[in-house]
Design brief:
Elements (H helix, E strand, L loop, with lengths): L1 H31 L5 H31 L1
Helix pairs in contact: 1-2
Length: about 70
């Protein structure tokens, strides 16, 4: 039963990692967009850094859950 719980947690963390990665890439594109305002670009760059941290965090958690299976 515990392995099923860990499996579900692994899948959840993997999905969250992918979502953070997608958001990071979208924010990177906005940050590079010369047509966007400086404020928008700076905000997107900040958000991309946060998304990268989230992506890394979810990857580590997913790996931990996978090891416990």
């Amino acid at each position: 039963m515990e392995s099923l719980k860990q499996g579900a947690n692994y899948v959840s963390e993997t999905v969250q990692q992918a979502t953070s990665g997608t958001s990071k890439e979208a924010n990177k594109q906005v940050a590079k967009d010369s047509d966007a305002s400086v404020g928008t670009r700076a905000s997107a760059a900040k958000d991309a850094v946060g998304d990268k941290l989230d992506e890394t965090k979810h990857d580590a958690k997913a790996s931990a859950h996978k090891e416990q299976i």
